[in-house]
Amino acid sequence: MPTLDGVWKLEREAGALPPFGLSKRIFGDGGWTLVGGVPAAYFRVQRRAGEGATLDYLGWPVKDELTPRADGSWAGRGLVAGREFCRFRLTRDPT
């Protein structure tokens, strides 16, 4: 499975997310979602058997399900209490 470690830009594809200003920092088994560069929510990374991972947010009923894409980015969908509320793409931030 491709590595998730690093800094990622989040691009909204559908649903209830701002069109810009979101990113994720993922290292090892944890990370942060940032809003405008400010850490907003901590999560734990759960790698799924086969391909993909789930980001479980601490203190929130929110999960992100991630699936690698052939181009090196990741497809994501956000879930609140098991219901999808958004779709997004993670692309590696070169900075």
Structure summary:
With 95 residues, this protein is an all-beta fold. The protein is built from no helices and 8 strands. It has one domain: Lipocalin.
Question: How would you characterize the overall build of this protein?
Answer:
With 95 residues, the chain is mostly beta strands. It has a single domain (6-92), classed as Lipocalin. The chain has strands spanning 6-15, 22-27, 30-35, 38-47, 53-57, 62-68, 74-80, 83-92. Strands 1-2-3-4-5-6-7-8 form an 8-stranded antiparallel β-barrel. A hairpin with a 4-residue loop joins β5 (53-57) and β6 (62-68). It starts with 5 loop residues before the first strand and ends with a strand. The model has no long low-confidence stretch (mean pLDDT 93).
Number of domains: 1
If you compute it from the alpha carbons, what radius of gyration comes out, rounded to the nearest whole angstrom?
12 Å
Question: How much β-strand is present in the residues?
Answer: over 45%
Neighbour order of strands in the largest sheet: 1-2-3-4-5-6-7-8
Q: Tell me the name of the CATH class.
A: Mainly Beta
Query: Ends: how far apart?
Result: 23 Å
Largest sheet: 8 strands, antiparallel, barrel
CATH topology (fold) name: Lipocalin
Based on CA inertia axes, which overall geometry fits?
A: globular
Structure classification: mainly beta
Q: Which series of helices and strands comes N to C?
A: EEEEEEEE
CATH architectural grouping: Beta Barrel
Discrete helix count = 0
The protein's oligomeric status is single chain
Q: Using DSSP, what is the number of strands?
A: 8
For the residues shown, what is the average pLDDT?
A: 93
Q: Runs with pLDDT <50, length 5+?
A: none
Helical percent range? under 10%
